[in-house]
């Protein structure tokens, strides 16, 4: 496939998913923390500023956050603070995204070792820059866990396969201290070095790995993972199925269906891909078995140039990392529910798996016709995954941003909203923390929520009766249903319920009705509803209303009075 004269067209097409992905981040990112973000970012930075002692600051830097040490993410937070004096979550989203752009660059460098036409690289950006893992690139804690880990693992395997050992070690250490999944870079490197019979480097790799992993886990608790072994003993089939569901996660096309229906295609597609992966990995192992133990000498491996052998070693490392990751996730996570195997937070890893599977085939086959057919199939599949991810996930991304925006207002003025149960001890801790950062001038809440609050406080009209909005008072909450509401991908177009009196204003984002028709890919239907829990409101008498926001324009009104005892 010689299309060197069409190289500008190639880069233009490959740039499409990348540019769209970056645009989604820039457009939908909002400068707000969410749930698990508070520990590694606001709380860490507040304690860092409040401490002058170097030992205490180093302790904060390496302090675990749940079961992870997020040293890389904390260093990024400090870097931005040292430059600007502020904490900004949009910067954290963008900064983490740079690692995924770096991952693409490393794959391009590795691919060039194959000496194939650049057009064979085309499916990779469409697989890597789809929207299924939006809970990584638009959630700061997940972004600074998974995106640096993937980058440093890929970089480490690239350098190790290129016989740049010191750089590979450094990248491996960085992967380890991005999050816990980074520790799997060490068994991946062991596989690469063993198959290359580089035993001196192997010894050094093992020593550094033991030290890095030992220090990583020093002082950490088991986080309840011991119960995962009891769960595995009782339901071993879920771990087996979870292994395949995790690797095939990009084929999770039907998020509104039951978990059995939803996970069937990911499990099946990963199983099919694994047939080839096992065959290919066996071909990489047999030369070492022949050289080391005199086995399989009747099946000599095809001769490879140095650069082609380096590419194969690179892919062996990627596969080794992914298979260990999938095994551990399959063992530890099913006890939380099988849906976790295909949750958005993990879906950068199945992208990596499909990329490695595709590359391993096109660089190993000597049949030009088979290679071209594989490229065509991969291009079609990657484009389908990318397109379906936009159709299915863009509405979710848009609605989630609106949810963050109004809950940022609630957090600022009502002391809850960004992921913690209202009036709980954790909510009080977050409220105190965020107020202190605001008073210090380190953090500022987004203006959109404040402007919406100003407009709603000035609203005096009744809600139009022709919209047929219903209000039902239930035992534990107030149910509001608007059958005519419609979702919009525009970030400042949304529908919200509000409850207000002279002292307080609460916002609740109206949630789109779930789609139940024949279109398997569609998630939302016409209409919105919400159940407002009594427990989120202080006692008193309030106005209940709905507003439709379209940019600076606001429509809606008051539905009636409610009393919270």
Count of DSSP-assigned helices: 19
Radius of gyration over C-alpha positions, nearest whole angstrom: 26 Å
Indicate the percent of residues in helices: 55-70%
Portion in beta strands: 5-15%
How many E strands? Answer: 8
> Which of globular, elongated, flat, extended, rod-shaped describes the shape?
globular
Largest sheet: 4 strands, antiparallel
Compressed to H and E, one letter per element, the order equals: HHHHHHHHHHHHHHHHHHHEEEEEEEE
Mean pLDDT: 91
Largest beta sheet: strand ordering: 1-2-6-5
Taking pLDDT < 50 over at least 5 consecutive residues as the criterion, the unreliable ranges are none
Structural class: alpha+beta
Distance between the termini: 74 Å
SSE inventory with pairings:
Elements: H1 7-28, H2 39-50, H3 54-62, H4 71-84, H5 89-111, H6 123-128, H7 134-137, H8 140-161, H9 165-176, H10 185-195, H11 199-217, H12 226-234, H13 236-247, H14 259-293, H15 306-332, H16 348-364, H17 368-414, H18 425-439, H19 447-457, E1 470-473, E2 477-482, E3 493-500, E4 505-509, E5 511-514, E6 524-533, E7 540-550, E8 553-564
Antiparallel strand pairs: 1-2, 2-6, 3-4, 3-7, 5-6, 7-8
Helix pairs in contact: 1-5, 2-4, 4-5, 5-8, 8-9, 8-10, 8-15, 9-11, 10-11, 10-15, 12-13, 13-14, 13-15, 14-16, 15-16, 16-17, 17-19
Features:
58% helix; 565 residues; alpha+beta; four-stranded antiparallel sheet; single chain; 19 helices
Compact description:
With 565 residues, the protein is α+β, with helices and mostly antiparallel strands. It has helices at 7-28, 39-50, 54-62, 71-84, 89-111, 123-128, 134-137, 140-161, 165-176, 185-195, 199-217, 226-234, 236-247, 259-293, 306-332, 348-364, 368-414, 425-439, 447-457; strands at residues 470-473, 477-482, 493-500, 505-509, 511-514, 524-533, 540-550, 553-564.
């Amino acid at each position: 496939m010689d299309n060197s004269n069409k190289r500008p067209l190639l880069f233009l097409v490959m740039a499409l998913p990348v540019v769209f992905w970056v645009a989604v981040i820039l457009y939908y990112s909002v400068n707000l923390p969410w749930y698990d973000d508070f520990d590694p970012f606001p709380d860490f930075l507040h304690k860092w500023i409040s401490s002058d002692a170097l030992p205490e600051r180093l302790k904060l830097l390496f302090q675990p956050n749940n079961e992870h040490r997020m040293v890389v993410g904390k260093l990024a937070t400090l870097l931005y603070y040292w430059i600007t004096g502020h904490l900004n979550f949009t910067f954290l989203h963008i900064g983490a995204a740079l690692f995924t752009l770096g991952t693409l660059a490393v794959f391009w460098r590795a691919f060039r070792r194959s000496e194939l036409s650049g057009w064979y690289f085309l499916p990779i950006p469409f697989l890597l820059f789809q929207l299924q893992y939006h809970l990584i690139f638009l959630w700061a804690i997940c972004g600074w866990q998974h995106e640096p880990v993937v980058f440093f693992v890929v970089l480490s395997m690239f350098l190790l396969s290129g016989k740049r050992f010191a750089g590979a070690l450094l990248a491996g250490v960085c992967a380890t201290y991005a999050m816990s999944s980074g520790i799997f870079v060490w068994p991946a490197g062991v596989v690469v070095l063993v198959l290359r019979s580089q035993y001196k480097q192997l010894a050094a790799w093992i020593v550094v790995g033991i030290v890095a992993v030992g220090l990583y886990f020093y002082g950490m608790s088991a986080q309840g993972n011991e119960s995962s072994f009891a769960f595995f003993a009782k339901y071993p089939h879920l771990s087996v199925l979870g292994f395949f569901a995790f690797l095939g996660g990009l084929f999770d096309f039907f998020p509104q269906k039951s978990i059995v229906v939803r996970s069937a295609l990911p499990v099946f597609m990963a199983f099919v891909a694994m047939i080839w992966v096992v065959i290919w990995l066996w071909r990489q192992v047999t030369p070492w078995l022949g050289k080391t133990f005199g086995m399989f000498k009747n099946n000599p491996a095809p001769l490879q140039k140095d650069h082609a052998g380096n590419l194969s070693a690179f892919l062996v490392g990627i596969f080794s990392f992914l298979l260990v990751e999938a095994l551990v996730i399959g063992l530890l996570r099913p006890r939380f529910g099988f849906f976790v195997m295909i949750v958005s937070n993990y879906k950068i890893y199945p992208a990596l798996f499909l990329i490695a599977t595709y590359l391993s085939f096109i660089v190993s086959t000597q049949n030009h016709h088979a290679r071209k057919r594989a490229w065509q199939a991969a291009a079609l599949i990657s484009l389908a995954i990318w397109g379906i991810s936009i159709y299915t996930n863009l509405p979710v991304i848009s609605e989630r941003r609106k949810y963050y925006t109004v809950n940022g207002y609630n957090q600022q003025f009502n002391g809850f909203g960004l992921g913690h149960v209202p009036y709980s001890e954790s909510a009080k801790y977050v409220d105190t923390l965020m107020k202190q950062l605001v008073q210090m001038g380190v953090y500022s809440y987004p203006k959109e929520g404040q402007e919406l609050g100003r407009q709603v406080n000035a609203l005096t009209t009744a809600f139009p009766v022709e919209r047929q909005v219903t209000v039902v008072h239930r035992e534990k909450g107030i149910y509001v249903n608007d059958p005519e509401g419609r979702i919009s991908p525009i970030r400042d177009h949304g529908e919200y319920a509000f409850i207000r009196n002279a002292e307080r204003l609460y916002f609740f984002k109206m949630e789109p009705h779930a789609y139940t028709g024949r279109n398997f890919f569609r998630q939302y239907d016409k209409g919105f509803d919400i159940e407002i829990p009594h427990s989120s409101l202080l006692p008193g008498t309030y106005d209940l209303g709905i507003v439709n926001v379209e940019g600076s324009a606001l429509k809606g009104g008051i539905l009636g009075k409610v009393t919270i005892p």
